[in-house]
């Protein structure tokens, strides 16, 4: 009789542990989704600011229509991406847009009136702040993914993860262009 209670006790403890492990995986998976949602919010914020920036620059930089058209095309591409693309694909497109925006900001050096325009300066500051928020959100996302992946791969929760259909998530990688050291000439 005591063997039956011992076996029953072990089964109950394993079942309770399984429930806690499963709930932990669900919680961490939702944190990953929340972290991605934060990135998505900042990408949308940047997309909303870009038309105002382009319109402001158009008035001063009439010769730079190709650059401005490229920025709008990239913005529209990102805005049109659905939920069927991976976070990495969306971030790759976003990184290209960030590079194009740097080109627009560099235009201000060629147009002193634009450089002094309050609206342009405010938009530039807003976009810079948004880029910083995107960077922070990427860090939060990668941190959430790393914690989740550790739980999914660690023994014994990997058993519950396998039964529950939990799989690893991919970290967002830094593009090769961003890893290059800028060249400084004097």
UniProtKB/TrEMBL annotation:
It is found in: Membrane. The keyword Disulfide bond does not apply. The keyword Transmembrane helix applies. Pfam families: LemA. It is a single-pass membrane protein. This is LemA family protein. It comes from Granulicatella adiacens ATCC 49175. Its main location: membrane. Belongs to the LemA family. Keywords: Membrane, Transmembrane, Transmembrane helix. GO terms for cellular component: membrane.
């Amino acid at each position: 009789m005591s063997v039956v209670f011992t076996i029953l006790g072990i089964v109950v403890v394993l079942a309770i542990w399984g429930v806690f492990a499963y709930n932990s995986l669900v919680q961490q998976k939702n944190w990953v989704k929340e972290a991605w949602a934060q990135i998505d919010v900042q990408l949308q914020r940047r997309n909303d600011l870009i038309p105002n920036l382009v319109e402001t620059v158009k008035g001063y930089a009439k010769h730079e229509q190709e650059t401005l058209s490229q920025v709008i095309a990239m913005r529209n591409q990102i805005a049109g991406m659905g939920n069927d693309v991976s976070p990495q694909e969306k971030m790759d497109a976003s990184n290209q847009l960030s590079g194009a925006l740097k080109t627009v900001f560099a235009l201000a050096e060629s147009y002193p009136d634009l450089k002094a325009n309050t609206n342009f300066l405010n938009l530039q500051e807003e976009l810079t702040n948004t880029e910083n928020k995107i960077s922070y959100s990427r860090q939060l996302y990668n941190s959430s993914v790393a914690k989740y992946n550790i739980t999914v791969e660690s023994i014994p929760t990997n058993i519950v993860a396998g039964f529950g259909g939990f799989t690893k998530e991919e970290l967002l990688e830094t593009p090769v262009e961003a890893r290059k050291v800028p060249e400084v000439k004097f």
